[in-house]
Design goal:
This protein is an alpha/beta fold and 297 residues long. The protein has 10 helices and 11 strands. Helix 2 links the parallel strand 2 and strand 3. It is globular. It binds 5,10-Methenyltetrahydrofolate.
Length: 297
């Protein structure tokens, strides 16, 4: 292994600690805790694990956690009614509707119902538009966590060649915008990109967010590149395993001998997502209370 490991788990623990201290100060000043509401529709086991760990992290960071579990056959109107109640609830600063939604619930319609001032996921079109035009607003947690890791490692990203693989609204597109805002030269690659290995080979920074296990190979990487692996893929169980291993979108075992720095899976980007969610929630709380948020947030 020649690459430095980017310890997202440790960085996230640090961020949660800082947010927790500021959240305690917020509660003192505002006379109430910051609150995050999570809405989970249906009973996907992976979503359940995620929602639970987020609830624990919220409480550990001195904030209030509200969980709303709704049956898988909830109608769009009923789900939107829940969101509207949360919009009107002064104890709730942030609202997260866990995606994907089951059945044929229209995700965009549900997200559109969230008050943009409580859109701590940054998924509302208002938040996306603000990011695009450089106005203050909520930035999706995963790409914001990634840019924090990159700035921590490199300081200035000016002029670096960044390749984002994947063009989702949740990761790829906002990631590219954040890299552009940091003055990187940005390429967005995707399933129709020609000669993807050659495109990736030019990158000083590679962000892999395609959702395909170990797709990015070591010989695609420029030696010394910084690799941010957003993928969380569960492999089929090998012999003797009850659960398959979690792997990223990058072939980590081989890539670690070529990259200059790389995030592991697990323990890389995933924990950053939750830490940034708490950070966004506290920023929302300060805004709702009309108190200026500390610079360090
Ligand atoms: N509205 C909405 N917002 C989300 O942010 C959102 C969502 N829906 N739906 C599901 C995905 C997934 N997600 C993860 C966050 C943290 C880890 C995480 O911390 N993973 C750990 C360990 C995972 C494990 O061991 O199973 C790691 O990568 O080290 C994983 C996944 C947020 N999501």
């Amino acid at each position: 292994m020649t690459a430095e490991l980017i310890d997202g788990k440790a960085f996230a623990a640090d961020l949660r600690e800082r947010v927790g201290a500021h959240a305690a100060a917020f509660a003192e000043k505002a006379g109430r805790k910051a609150g995050l509401a999570v809405v989970l529709v249906g009973e996907d086991p992976a979503s359940d694990v995620y929602v639970r760990s987020k609830g624990k992290a919220t409480i550990a960071a001195n904030m209030e956690s509200f969980e709303h579990r709704l049956p898988a056959d909830t109608s769009e109107a009923d789900l939107i009614a829940v969101v509207e109640r949360l919009n009107a609830d002064p104890a709730v600063d942030g609202i997260l509707v866990q995606l994907p939604l089951p059945g044929d619930l229209d995700e965009q319609a549900v997200i559109a119902a969230i008050d943009p001032g409580k859109d701590v996921d940054g998924f509302h079109v208002e938040s996306a538009g603000r990011l695009m035009v450089g106005r203050e607003g909520f930035v999706p947690c995963t790409p914001l966590g990634c840019i924090m890791l990159l700035k921590d490692r490199h300081g200035d990203l000016s002029g670096m060649n960044a390749v984002v693989i994947g063009r989702s609204n949740i990761v790829g597109k906002p990631m590219a915008q954040l890299l552009l805002d940091a003055n990187a030269t940005v390429t967005i690659a995707h399933s129709r990109t020609k000669d993807l290995p050659d495109v990736v080979r030019r990158a000083d920074i590679v962000v892999a967010a395609v959702g395909r296990a170990e797709m990015v190979k070591a010989d695609w990487l420029k030696p010394g590149a910084t690799v941010i692996d957003v993928g969380i893929n569960r492999l089929a169980p090998a012999d003797g395993e009850s659960k398959g291993r979690l792997v990223g979108d990058v072939d980590f075992e081989a890539a670690k001998d070529v990259a200059g720095a790389i995030t592991p899976v697990p323990g890389g980007v995933g924990p950053m997502t939750i830490a940034v969610l708490l950070r966004n929630t506290l920023v929302a709380a300060y805004a709702h209370a009309g108190i200026e948020a500390p610079e360090a947030l």
